[in-house]
Design brief:
The structure is a homodimer of 332-residue chains. With 332 residues, the first copy, chain A, is of the alpha+beta class. Chain A is built from eight helices and 20 strands. Chains A and B meet through strand 6 and helix 6 of A and strand 6 and helix 6 of B. Chains A, B: This is Fumarylacetoacetate hydrolase family protein.
Chain lengths: 332, 332
């Protein structure tokens, strides 16, 4: 089942159910007006939403053509956004430029509490208050979950995964050091995260979802130039069930919590631009750090004003599974 | 105007308007079913809610007796909870046991992104997954705000303050160091924050609200023993407008964002137990650090299982302005 939230002028938008080919949609209003409402009562809502999708696919409901430009984030505002660091290669490249693996990082996943009060639409501009904040994208897989009790087991965590999508965890690299030196963690360096237009149930992803990981390449382009297409499943050290278990160590997690897997990262030696069959990077800072090691200095600039970033998970049919995130950088 | 949210079995509860003496309530359902709905459309909702309060006070509506035991947090789940460190004395006592003021701390307020997916009712138990996590309370003032644009001015920030209340930012001190050493900030050490039953408009607080600060003592008792009654206004270095401006440096803040002022703290030399007219502490770790300096070791234990913590802001009439937070520590 594929779900999306369309802009209807209200803060939470309008939940819609998509056809299997994602070409048409029907309002889910009779079942649940918003995705949060559906998540609050998932056992009731999911079969009814699924039935709507089946009717749409069978032509029993004609529906409307789906226009991703009208989509908001699946949850335009959420009660919780937790981002994990599940790809150790990313942490290593960002932290130390070393090839060695930090024992603590591999022991248990590091998480941070992100802001969730306004999650950006897939085509919303990236608004920066200053032009030189070393703006970076971070392509990630994210799951939207049902309620999870404190000290949940891996089985409970896996069973709570309701929907899968991708997101762009925008970072202002120039503000990261100051945030972290304060000791209280990310704050100013992490403005609103943006999400792809479509969220999909694990079952509907078929073989692409297994071991609580998304096994698809996530393609990242800046101004039409390929920056990376790393597979999100191949080097994800902690799976999503493990991230949820870690998040629930000292607290329950409410329905509608979104958990990110952190910047997708696969170890390799390339630098930008990558070859058409290369792996590349799902953020700029990794490319810069590889370039520093290789050439003595970073070549690839961070995002500039008017730059456009496109991110999409590519299915076996070559289609963008969740629809594309397509954002342009603008000055406030 | 005084508002509260009663438990009606739904995740967001039922918004109610209280009489001026907080003795009776009437459902706000005809205006807004939930506090978030009222905040989403405050310019429309506030006058209508205010009219309901006036009718209740005039006896035109009889209402029902208000039972604080039925109250949830004013926002039982919120889209954002940001906690600031506005009392430099607290940061100094916790960090360094020194009397000197850290220049960076005084330069701009430090904020952290807290979890807001399940904010605890005033009488909800404090559930700890282990008995020895060095559990502490932190009595704080919090404001609930309307939407604030990125780079808001102090005037915009002050005008966005919709409601004032108090909260208990529960901390598991034994987990703090690990959270902060990870570099990503507080996570496991900060389980669900609890809130007083009543949220009040700044105007209804009269002289107790001025300069964007709450000028009332906040009384903290553990098992009936007075731990502190520091005035929340006297030593609040950054006011709430300044905290909001800082939070909006790189992003807009959505309506329903809650901003905490951090643990209330007033410089003095006492240790526990305090005299009936003493100032004392709004958390245990400060008392322990003062005791370490004074006696060479901490005497006051952290919260134990079955301990009960009571927190209330005391008005000039001796009444608990927002109602009491009254929580008992239980093991998961």
């Amino acid at each position: 089942m594929n779900l999306a939230t369309l802009n209807n002028g209200r803060p939470d938008g309008q939940l819609v159910v998509l056809s299997q080919n994602r070409g048409r949609y029907v309002s889910a209003g009779r079942v649940a007006p918003t995705l949060q409402a559906a998540l609050d009562d998932w056992d009731m809502a999911a079969p009814a939403l699924s039935a709507l999708a089946a009717q749409l696919d069978a032509g029993q409901i004609s529906g409307q053509p789906f226009d991703a430009n009208r989509a908001l984030a699946p949850l335009p505002r959420a009660y919780q956004w937790i981002d994990g660091a599940a790809y150790l290669n990313h942490a290593e490249r960002v932290r130390a430029l070393k090839g060695t693996r930090d024992a603590d990082l591999a022991n248990r996943p590091v998480l941070y509490q992100g802001s969730s009060d306004s999650l950006s639409a897939p085509t919303a501009p990236i608004i920066t208050p200053e032009p030189d904040l070393a703006l970076d994208f971070e392509a990630e897989v994210a799951v939207i979950i049902g309620a999870v009790p404190m000290r949940a087991t891996l089985e409970q965590a896996a069973a709570a995964i309701r929907l899968v999508t991708i997101c762009n965890d925008i970072s202002m690299r120039r503000l990261v050091a100051n945030d972290l030196q304060n000791g209280f963690g990310f704050f100013h360096a992490k403005p609103a995260t943006s999400f792809a237009p479509i969220a999909t149930t694990p079952a509907a992803l078929g073989a692409a979802w297994r071991d609580n990981r998304l096994h698809l390449p996530v393609r990242c382009e800046v101004n039409g130039v390929l920056y990376g297409q790393p597979n999100a499943g191949s080097d994800m050290y902690f799976d999503f069930a493990a991230l949820i278990v870690e998040a629930a160590r000292t607290r329950a997690l409410a329905a509608g919590t979104i958990i990110g897997g952190g910047t997708i990262s696969v170890p390799h030696e390339e630098s930008l631009p990558i070859k058409p069959n290369g792996i590349g990077f799902a953020c700029i800072v990794e490319a810069r750090n590889v370039e520093k090691l290789k050439y003595g200095r970073a070549r690839t600039p961070f995002l500039q004003l008017d730059d456009t970033i496109r991110i999409g998970a590519i299915g076996s049919d070559g289609q963008s599974v969740f629809g594309d995130i397509l954002q342009t950088v603008v000055l406030l």
